[in-house]
Amino acid sequence: MPDVIKLDLVEQPLAAASMVLSNIAWPDLEDPQSEDGRLRFLGMWVALIRVRAASEPEWADRRQPLPPVLACFSDRDLKAALKGFDLRIKRRLAAGRMAIAFLQELLTGKTPQLPSPAMRLSVNEMAAVLQDDVDMSDSKNAATHAWRPSLPV
Fold it and tell me: Does residue 113 sit in helix, strand or coil?
């Protein structure tokens, strides 16, 4: 793969989306420019292109300024690049939803209205609210999985 991929984010908005999504899902990559980081970014870009092409056939039939490396992604390569994405993004979204109440309190100086069953503003209480979202039966596990850095298996 090339060392640098130049992006025109106006002509290639899916590249920007793939960059954002891959960085949210894998913030723990030591170097986003590493081989693993590029693989995940390019895999996300390929996945977004496939989704858009399936939903907009007329878009798929138009000429597109894309790097040739994207055409080389097999289904197997794509699966490897996006391994764990669904679970990681689910946990990042849960952490974001947990953080909203804390940010509201920081901005307004008042405790915001809390979702049921939270009694007070704490990580564990907010984790109890979102434990179903991260498929955890224990709120302590939900808090740990939503907030801790992702560890490789």
Answer: coil
Q: Which two tokens stand for residue 151?
A: 């560890």
Answer positive or negative: Cα dihedral of 87, 92, 93, 99.
Answer: positive
Residue 7 pLDDT:
61
Q: DSSP letter string over 5-49?
A: ----TTT-HHHHHHHHHHHHH-TT-S-TTSHHHHHHHHHHHHHHH
Closest by Cα among 78, 61, 57, 67 to 14? 67
pLDDT tens, residue by residue, 111-132: 888 877 788 888 878 877 777 7
In the chain, the amino acid numbered 89 is I
**d(C-alpha 18, C-alpha 40), whole Å:** 9
Question: What is the rounded distance in angstroms from the CA atom of residue 83 to the CA atom of residue 93?
Answer: 17
Highest mean predicted confidence (pLDDT) among 10-14, 42-46, 109-113: 42-46
Q: Mean pLDDT across the chain, nearest whole number?
A: 81
**pTM metric for this prediction:** 0.70
